[in-house]
Amino acid sequence: MKKKIYSDYPYKHVTWECTNVCNFSCSYCWPDLHSGTHRWPNEEKTSKLVSYLKNFSDNKIITLDIMGGEPTLWPHLEHFCNSVGSFCKVYFSTNGSRTARYWNNFNAPLNELYFSFHPEQSDPEIFLKNVEITSKKYHVSVYILLHPLYRDICTDLYDKLYESDYPIRAGIKKINGLPMKYSQEEINYMVDKKFDRWQTKNDISFKVYRNGREISLDKFTKLGHNRFKGWTCTFTQNYRYIKYDGTIYGAACGRAGQSPFGNVFENEIKQEPITSVVCDRDSCNCKTDIIMAPKKIINKRLPNVRTL
Fold first, then answer.
1. What gap in Å lies between CA 75 and CA 56, rounded to an integer?
2. Nearest to 291 by CA among 277, 270, 308
3. Rounded Cα distance, 302 and 239, in Å
4. Is position 193 within any domain?
5. Measured in Å, how far apart are the chain's first and last C-alpha atoms?
6. Residues 103, 105, 108, 113: what is their CA dihedral angle, to the nearest 10 degrees?
7. In a domain, 285, yes or no
8. Could you tell me the residue range of the domain that residue 56 belongs to?
9. Phi, psi dihedral angles at 185 (to 5 degrees)
10. 50 in a domain, yes or no?
11. H helix or E strand, kind and range, residue 186
12. What is the pTM (predicted TM-score) of this model?
């Protein structure tokens, strides 16, 4: 029996956690991502990061995903995005809590902007207004994180977005780390509720192929296909994950390349040969780890193989 899961993602990619400062403290979020132990890089560290990205790009366009914490709390986020815009397709995630004035004034080249609605702490009206403002100048994708205890708030927000004329992508997303399980009805609802009104298309594809059939990454994870425990993961030279302290890994989970590739802020960069590790996680929740990872099952008796 032979199965394959793969993607045709065309770029080298870097994900960078620019900070672990966040103005939210959601109950399901990893404490490490909002503990506030690392604010944002100073000018010297930022310069080292830009140099690393240029070297990693090898004179080609790469994609750069900026995460947090909450990236928009970094006072120099706009300047940084402008400084790497000539060789990076930049996108970042935000909880959408900044003021309308902030978003009206924000001016940087972005390939895509992700808004994540966290029902425990987000203000739906502020969130909606900021989606409206940014959708006039960026490719905006909205993810509403469905929390069973706040379902009415989530469904009401989705309905308002659907009934609007905003040129956005939007959908309902599952929350990893909740103590309660989703019902089958809730899973079906999440799979069904999505729309795409982008007026121009983005050339970055977040699709994977399962046994030769195309499936959206969103549907892939909602249906639970992202469970790779026991699979062999092999990282490549096309993907790096940089933590807020500058440590460089081969994947978000840190398993691919358990020995870090050094630290971008300390000029300790190592070129490692391709290495394999066995995944010990119940699920792979990082979209880029999935996209950058062709996988195959040789047969039922042999170990699964997943290549990063």
1. 25
2. 308
3. 27
4. yes
5. 22
6. 10
7. no
8. 11-223+237-273
9. -65, -40
10. yes
11. helix 184-192
12. 0.84
User: How many domains does the chain divide into?
Assistant: 1
- Tokens encoding 117: 């609605």
Where does residue 293 rank: exposed (0-12), middle (13-18), buried (19+ CB within 10 A)?
Answer: buried
For residue 115, give both structure tokens. 């808004």
| Total count of residues recorded for the chain | 308
Q: Is residue 300 part of a domain?
A: no
Task: Give the residue from 84, 73, 140 showing the smallest Cα distance to 109.
Answer: 84
Distance CA 168, CA 197 (A): 5
Q: Could you tell me the CATH number of the domain that includes residue 264?
A: 3.20.20.70
CA distance 144 to 197: 16
- Which of 157, 67, 61 has the alpha carbon at shortest distance from 118? 157
How many Cα atoms sit within 13 Å of 29 on the Cβ side? 22
> Each residue's pLDDT tens digit in the chain (308 positions)?
344 556 667 789 999 999 999 999 999 888 887 888 888 999 999 999 999 999 999 999 999 999 999 999 999 999 999 999 999 999 999 999 999 999 999 999 999 999 999 999 999 999 999 999 999 999 999 999 999 999 999 999 999 999 999 999 999 998 987 888 899 999 999 989 999 999 777 666 556 666 667 777 777 777 777 777 777 666 677 888 999 999 998 887 766 555 678 899 987 777 665 566 777 777 776 777 776 655 543 333 333 434 33
Structure tokens at 95: 């909880």
